[in-house]
Amino acid sequence: MTLIETRDVDIRHGANTVLRDVNLTIDRGEIVTIVGPNGSGKSSLLRALIGAIQPAQGTVTRAPGLRIGYVPQTLHIDPTLPMTARRFLSLPRRHATADLDKALEQAGLPDLHDRQMADLSGGQFQRVQLARALMEKPDLLILDEATQGLDQPGSAAFYRRIEEVRHDLGCAVLMVSHELHVVMSASDRVICLNGHICCEGKPEVVVSAPEYRAIFGTGTGGALALYRHRHDHDHHHDHTCDHDHEAAE
């Protein structure tokens, strides 16, 4: 079942076109990762998908009654403000205690109900944000660089939890990530942006892929191979990979 589909979407900020001719679908149960250099339009695409901004042209079609859970890139809470994890999950509206407990358990934090948010580690803080997104019982879970600031073991543990959530809830997961090991291990499909969809397909570890290491760096032993992908649109075409990316900062 298709949850979201875009057709010929352009996104502009003022006179600047940040994305052009974006055609994609997100289906129930799949994990899709969006990659690309800084300024490639990743966050703009997410905002268009959730309805926070309107495309300059083209259409975004969401399944009727689509429920979206969103884990933002960053969230700052005043450390002097007393707030337990349970209270945080009750904002902006109260939920039944059983629902709060279930969301924390799904996020891997069954024993942190009464811990102060200011006392949580980075990984625990992100999992509480995940629990808050799961309160919506999402059909689609969106994560925007959700492991930024975590070390590699923390990131790997977080995304293993995401895979478990996908399995348990049957939801789709859409992630933005710069982390190559996450792309390789956790994704069913990768969409590479650089102002447009320059390539799309299944991720696979290969011995050497210098054009993608230019984007992702060489911090992992593997590399990323993205294959041509034929779209099922009225005007069939292949997406081939552009090689004019700049290294991500």
Beta percentage is 25-35%
**Residue windows where pLDDT falls under 50 for at least 5 positions:** 205-209, 219-249
Look at the structure and give the mean pLDDT: 79
Q: Could you give the count of β-strands?
A: 11
Q: Helix share of residues?
A: 25-40%
The rounded Rg comes to 18 Å
State the strand order across the main sheet.
5-6-7-3-8-9
The largest β sheet comes out as:
6 strands, mixed
What is the N-to-C succession of helices and strands?
EEEHEEHHHEHEHEEHEE
Helix-strand category: alpha/beta
Global shape: globular
What is the number of helices?
7
Distance between the termini: 36 Å
Describe this structure in words.
The protein is built from seven helices and eleven strands. The chain is α/β, with parallel strands linked by helices. It has a domain at 75-137. The chain is globular and about 45 Å long.
